[in-house]
Amino acid sequence: MVMLKEKLENQDDVKELQMIVNLMCYIALDLKEISCLESIAVFDTKLNTIFCENKQELKNDKDGRMMVKEYLKDHKEVVHCLRDALKTGEHKKVREREGKSALAIPIMGVKKPIGVVGIIYETDGCQKEVCTSDLLFKDIINIFIIKYREISQKEAMASMSCSLKTLEDYEKYAILETGRKCNWNISMMAKELEIGRNTLYCKMKKMGIS
């Protein structure tokens, strides 16, 4: 398993991406039961391979990651697909040669993507923009990630309840949680918290939240 070396802006993002990578061995087991799957990999924001596996010779080790690197060198369209998903925060797809497609599924952090899952699979001649297989892969990965986050949030809530001592502590926690929920959109946050935008700005500045 690869330890992340990339310096993301938010250290919580680093921990979360690391945990998601740890979960990929379980996700891969489910995905490998899908007959059309060829390979799955996880990349950081610089497209370094941090997890990879398929049904044949590709394993999650140094040699496997080198094979993925060589594959990307020969498949620039897949690289563009992965980068596009990281840039937009949306799922992207590109049709590969020999009846295969590449699907890029971004892993969202606090404010933006912190990584991306890449899947190569057989399309069975599907020419639609979104095929059933696309939705299946997205759902499986998103369900795993959502379940992980639910567990993490419950654990965080339990630990936070012991450390929140003052009204300001609770207020700061509420702002941080709302920020994550609203993707740090100030207007949405202010509406959710039922306070004015300027008031929210002042509180965030006072609390050192940027």
TrEMBL record:
The name this protein goes by in its record: DNA binding HTH domain-containing protein
Record InterPro entries: Homeodomain-like_sf, HTH_Fis
Top-level taxon of origin: Bacteria
Membrane-spanning ranges: none
Sequence ranges assigned to domain DNA binding HTH in this UniProt record: 166-206
Gene Ontology molecular function terms on file: sequence-specific DNA binding
Pfam families for the chain: HTH_8
